[in-house]
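Q: I have 769 residues here and want to know how they pack in 3D. Can you give me a structure?
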Amino acid sequence: MTIHGSHWGAFRARVEGGRLVEAVPFEGDTDPSPLLRSVPGAVHARNRVTRPAVRGSWLDGSGGRRGADPFVEVSWETALDLVAGELRRVHAEHGPQAVFGGSYGWASAGRLHHAKTQLNHFLACAGGYSGQTSNYSYGAAERLLPHVLGDTAPVTGQVATWDDIAAHTDTVLMLGGFPAKNVQLESGGTGDHTARLGLARALERGTRVVNVNPVRSDAPDHPGVDWVPVRPGSDTALLLALMRRLDALGAVDEEFVARCTVGDDRLRAYLRGAVDGVDKTPAWAAALTGVPTATIEGLADRLRTGRTLVTATWALQRAEHGEQPYWAVVALAAYLGQIGLPGGGFGFGYGCVARFGATYRAFGTPAFTARYNECPVRVPVARLTDMLLHPGEEYAFDGAVHRYPDVRLVYWAGGNPFHHHQDLNRLARAWQRPETVVVHEPWWTPTARMADIVLPATTTLERDDIAAGSGEPWLIAMQRSVEAPGEARNDRTIFAALAERLGVADAYTGGLDDAGALRAMYDRARRSATEHGHPIPDFDTFWATGHHRYDLPAPPPPYAAFRRFPSTAPLATPSGRIELFSATIDGFGYEECPGHPTWLPPTEWAGSATERFPIHLLSPQPGTRLHSQLDMGPVSTESKVAGREPCVVNADDAAARGIADGDVLRLWNERGETVVGAVVSDDVLPGVALLATGAWYTPLDPAADDSPELHGNPNVLTRDVPASRLSQGTSAQTVLVQIARVESPVRVRDPHALPTFALGARERVPGSG
């Protein structure tokens, strides 16, 4: 059986009669993902894109509506000529900024056939494009942390390892818990899932975990885990009160604060109420968070006794004012004075993806690097709809003023904005504005249905590649196992054909076919690994073996050198120290993101709930797929309730509405509505509901604006406003809704069906008569 790598881990491909029948977990994986069971069904799904297709109304120039019009299947020659012609036209008439290269990084664990990178490389070779910056995952943190800590390492690099936590940590304060479903996933793949077992090992050795979370089940069911239910969006208030309690007790590590931070005088004045007249006491926080005063006081006492690690999931900063809880986590850890000690300080990302708690490796990672894009326009990913609706409009971002480009052509490969983005009804309206939308897809996803030209792309099982990430020690050969269906081609082959038409073939391919590019990518990684004292085998040996595992030494605790010698090992902040108050951020003048951690009530949260919209809706990552990937697989489809995404509702809220398990529910607010299946539970705080992301967007009437969504996609309800002007990050977790039982629900339309094709339509280039 050939070996393969995926976001869900490595596996062996069992193929019978040319079909993948089982993804057998890799023998080196101690905790394989259940999502592997969905891989065969995805590879051979009935909704694969098998021929190039063009929206009929775009092809004949009659207009129509994206998402509602039938498609016409065309030859590759016609499709490639159409795409190349549109790229030439838009560049000539409007310039490179009018071409938007949209994508996201989760299309493949393979590092050569990484759709986003290949798209960016091609468009840069073809004359440039407006690109994206930041991400949906931790966009607020990405912009905040360089101002506070000097870089983004706390969300991208090394954090305290599970070995250090097990050996040294007495208490882990987990804001957002540790959703074990998420640690089965890793962008570059993994050979061995270690995170869930790492936490279990720490608990067995006596580490105590405090799950500060509206959801009990986001942490293990273990005697060493305490649940502290907290209202969504109020974590900053709790953290500020913990700091104020330490201050009142004289328990702040004043020596560490004086030696390793700046700005504490400003923060301390705010905590004590000198700035706004509000003392940030536990009693003050109790009214906001729903956590009793005595619990907050007891928690502060526990944190200052023994070694403490303060962690927060990425979800906390995917909210209005999402920068504030992360900044407050750093400040609390500084007050405790254990930053730089083994198993102490702070860490972000535990329970978000597989790599956190493992050893970060900044060398020897095979990766393809895109050509530099000469066009300087980079739009924050979460501002996609604003960009389409408001060309030329100014917006603030991280201390500077930018202007949205006037986008005429959207080129998307390797992503599904109709999953990732917020307020999908608004996006659907904005998506009608560009003149042309081109999409590469293996499946007829919601984004493919919203395109003008759809080019059929291969899945990872239909090409050779290498899975590798910097956050774990494995390299996995992704060996081609099955033939591509119909006329599907890999992205690199598609772009090479377009590059040939545009006269930039050599710039795009570098004179290498896929096999040569894969070998060259590996050889660069091999040189890097050798330079760092960790040689890896030659390519042929690696390919024959199918995998390689680095033997990596235990890393030092994060910030250990800085802790010992802050003057000679400074941070890359203006002061060289941890900035509890940032004069830089303060100077931007953003009232929604002041110069130190601050309690700022969200627009929509439990504290602003009304009779009309009383439920705070959280949209966590799903446990049955990755984002929207594998939604058609059995693990996801078996989890559906009445054919719809399950929504977890608190038992008291359900009783008040006459809701029982298995009922069909309507969720709505002023932005939209969706239909879901009910799961009643005591594991979620009253006034809170959970609806995982990723159910394929399925409007009742694709031809209508603001049509009800039938499949349970929460992003028809979420707010498309930034966390702040500092980050322009998503605020998906800040949303209120109403819930009601549906007596006679509309039959759910199959979200994974093929689109409509125009029968008997002939291929015709626009304007050809």
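Q: Anything worth noting?
A: Residues 764-769 have pLDDT under 50 and may be disordered. The longest strand covers residues 673-681.
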